[in-house]
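User: Fold this; tokens only.

Assistant: Input:
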Amino acid sequence: MQARVADDMANDGATPEEVMRRVTIEIIGRAIRFSHKSRRTIRISKTSGGKGVDVTTLDPRTDAGKANLEEFLSRGKRQYTISGLGQADEKGAVNWRRLNLPLGRRILLSLQVAVSIFMRGTPAKNRWYRWMGVNVGRGVEIMQMAWLDHFRPELIFIGDNTLIGAFSQLSVHAYEGAGKFRYGLIEIGADCKLGAGTGIGPIKMGDGVRTLPKTVVSPYYARIPPGAVVGGDKPPLVLPAQSPEAEAPASRTATPER
């Protein structure tokens, strides 16, 4: 069963799509306020390169804006892009971190993720991540030095009995410079095994998927089917040269098992 999660997880059992909608509405609301304050045209797009929609036209406080917002979200996406925030040294530029979350929660999440990195893969660590907002299933093990994004941890869903290897990185967002960032959902199915050092961005991963150590999945895959193994090419196996004294027929050669 795809991405079965614990009953006591964050977001009260909301589906990934419902959480994505909730987060997007919050970000749009903050973008509208920053747009008025900075007198900038901030846009949200369903593609990484699209021009996007002026967030002020999605203001739910007006009848037209509410209708536009519902229309925009009626065909929801797994990723969105925010642009128009301006260069860092530009007058009136909007910091993308401030647009995402208020200062208090940013500080709390930074402290929480700093502590989580050094915690062992125990049930206590899973409870810690649920406190942060991550949707963690039963029997999950998250090894030391793994990093789960504190940009919007509620966008991370980890299914039952999944292992997240040490030094893995799960990032729901990417800042692309010039006042532009994108964010999206990470869904990891049940019974998955992520090798040490796996790098993942927004993705939907089926049950029973395995990644080999140091595999970078994003941005190469948006979906991975159940049972797949993801990793680099099989390394070559070079057999030792046969000594002249060995007694073996010349016609026989050793080959590695496949």
